[in-house]
């Protein structure tokens, strides 16, 4: 994945509604969901849904196909996998195998300072 592609994908996923749509489509699997069903499940007006679907499509994170009068949207798994690989390619000083959530060798150091929200000002 090129840097500009990663930026486009992260920008698209950086909006709460688009992230919700994308996660719903990831859960739906390769068969995808009709646009109307996405809107119903997330409580989105058709115009709002259309705008966000367009942004995700522009970032190549989703695709669609026409079935009769319906548009069926689905996540593009290879693009998501490429984004994850791009984000972790230099993890743990280039050893991506050590960058798993359960790895004890490459975990952030614990900080013993009070979080900014909890500080008295």
TrEMBL record:
One of its GO terms (molecular function) is DNA-binding transcription factor activity. Residues 1-95 form the HTH arsR-type domain. InterPro entries: ArsR-like_HTH, HTH_ArsR_DNA-bd_dom, Metal_resp_trans_reg, WH-like_DNA-bd_sf, WH_DNA-bd_sf. Keywords: DNA-binding, Transcription, Transcription regulation. The keyword Cell cycle does not apply. SMART domains: HTH_ARSR. PROSITE patterns: HTH_ARSR_2. Residues 99-121 are annotated as: Disordered. The keyword Aminoacyl-tRNA synthetase does not apply. Residues 108-121 have a biased composition (Basic and acidic residues). This is Transcriptional regulator. It comes from Methylocystis echinoides.
